[in-house]
Amino acid sequence: MSDDTVVVWDESLLAYDLGDHPLDPVRVELTIALARELGILQRPGVRLIKPALADDALLTRVHDPRYLDAVRIAPRDPLFAGFGLGTSDNPVFEGMHESSARVAGATVAAAEAVWRGEARRAVNVAGGLHHAMPARAAGFCVYNDPAVAIARLLDLGAERIAYVDVDVHHGDGVQQIFWDDPRVLTVSLHETPLALFPGTGFPDETGGPGAAGTAVNIALPPGVEDAGWQRAFHAIVPSVLRAFRPQLLFAQCGADAHRVDPLADLHLSVDGQRATYLALRALADELCDGRWVATGGGGYALVEVVPRAWTHLLAVATGAPLEPATLVPPAWRELAASRRPGSDVPLRMTDDIDPGYEPWQPSGEPNPVDRAIAATRKAVFPLLGLDPHDPRD
């Protein structure tokens, strides 16, 4: 296996543009620009590859052919309605099929490069559109690129793929698509569905018949900060991954759990997000011989958060992590200010937060985070042969 890291990138990925909408492609443009300014994309062993459009054979591994027809037709038909398209969340836009298929093709290319041993890790920051359903657009997502890529890996012979979703919203589309498939473990940490879209991701969602224990949901209360989030992550994610023994780890790294994100209510820092990427890489190294595919996802603090978070992701994936106190290059600050006038352009790659945490223990008076941990462990750990009360599991 090559030790290279593949970064799938081309400016054509910016064409996934919903218009005057929270999911603004400027966040991806600024991420790539920041990573370039900091020398991350120029590191030895980093290969940039251009994506091709996923063809219908790939897309229909996940999506209904009638839905593909609808995505193609909708921009040309002013009376079109249905399939979740033409809503405020998923407005119709010119070139919708082509740009969505290119995002899916980019994530497939990342996954294939890792599976075939051409790279140890691969990243598509433009991907992570995890809400799209087989026959419906949802949550800003037209085609579900993580699910398309995972389906492709299964076709190539993969027997156990773990998908870990750290977006603030539940990874509902990926969970639903693989609900009955014991070859795919879906793990999602998210704000409680009682408070946030899409209203799913409760602890008792544990997988369909024949796949019990392959859906894991950690639903966190609003206001959780780094220490609580890390406590929950480490109380559950390493245990379920070790029990499942994946051949490849796929991570959806939405940056919208940050404290200033306008669409949710968790209070993470960029430092906490960086710590999560390091933990995911370590788990891939421990369990999958380093095979790790990562995408972006949500994230709506377009200048303040997303470019820094995903630049940290790219640094972790390509080698040495960036020091948190690294200064943001002046040229990038000028670019960001020109793209989003009036934004609070950051000076450094840190929020000056220590993301340390106290490991979970099944004792004492539980706080809301510990209640969430206990609910998930109780629901899913026995299905994986683990003891929900033993902190060693």
UniProtKB/TrEMBL annotation:
Protein name per its UniProtKB record: Acetoin utilization protein AcuC
Matches recorded under CDD domains: HDAC_AcuC_like (cd09994)
PANTHER family: HISTONE DEACETYLASE HDAC1, HISTONE DEACETYLASE HDAC1-RELATED
Claim: RNA-binding is one of the keywords in the record: no
Alphabetized Pfam families for the sequence: Hist_deacetyl
Pathway given in the UniProt record: Ketone degradation; acetoin degradation
Similarity comment: Belongs to the histone deacetylase family.
